[in-house]
Specification:
alpha/beta; four-stranded parallel sheet; globular; binds 5-nitro-6-ribityl-amino-2,4(1H,3H)-pyrimidinedione
Length: 169
């Protein structure tokens, strides 16, 4: 059994009544697409209905907090509120400080977003030093050295919505 990673869930969760939002950045698209697929596949395997997985995009990771906030608000306003949202982005370090500033500010904003939208926000942001690291964490490096972290995010979304979502108590 791997030491790192989500591992086995503490119990089985039923996602069949949940509505899940995915807001993903379009930077580093090949990696993003693999992560989104991993998340969607896991949601479906935990019973979330395909129609209840709503996907929206933003340009880059920096736009994830605001995009996610507006997306959650809009779904609520149209009478189809989300139980949980999974913002997904891939930041890869370049030669300037850009990476550090976006990684830090986006992470802080996503953490704080939970208080604003009052639903669980899953941390689907990879902050990698190299493209190879990011591909490994999306399960698409040549040697398939790691599992797809999007799957963990899907599982975390169902657990958090079931245990601590707006309709959990
Ligand atoms: N956005 C990403 O999602 N990943 C990156 O690796 C990245 N890099 O390397 O710059 C990135 N930049 C764009 C940024 O998130 C914003 O979209 C842009 O600055 C406009 O606000």
């Amino acid at each position: 059994m791997a030491v790192k990673g989500l591992g086995q869930l503490d119990q089985e969760y039923d996602g069949s009544k949940l509505r899940v939002g995915i807001v993903h950045a379009r930077w580093n698209r090949v990696i993003i697409d693999a992560l989104v697929k991993g998340a969607v596949d896991r949601l479906l395997s935990m019973g979330v209905k395909e129609d209840n997985i709503i996907v929206e995009t933003v340009p880059g990771s920096f736009e994830l907090p605001w995009g996610s906030k507006r997306f959650v608000d809009a779904q609520k306003a149209k009478g189809a509120p989300l139980d949980v949202v999974i913002p997904i982005g891939v930041l890869i370090k370049g030669s300037t400080m850009h990476f550090e500033y976006i990684s830090d500010s986006t992470t802080q904003a996503l953490m704080n977003l939970q208080d604003k939208v009052q639903i669980p926000v899953i941390f689907g942001l990879l902050t990698c030093l190299t493209e190879e690291q990011a591909m490994a964490r999306a399960g698409i490096d040549a040697g398939k050295t790691m599992h797809n972290h999007g799957e963990d995010w899907g599982a975390a979304a169902v657990e958090m919505a079931a245990k601590f979502g707006p309709n959990a108590f």
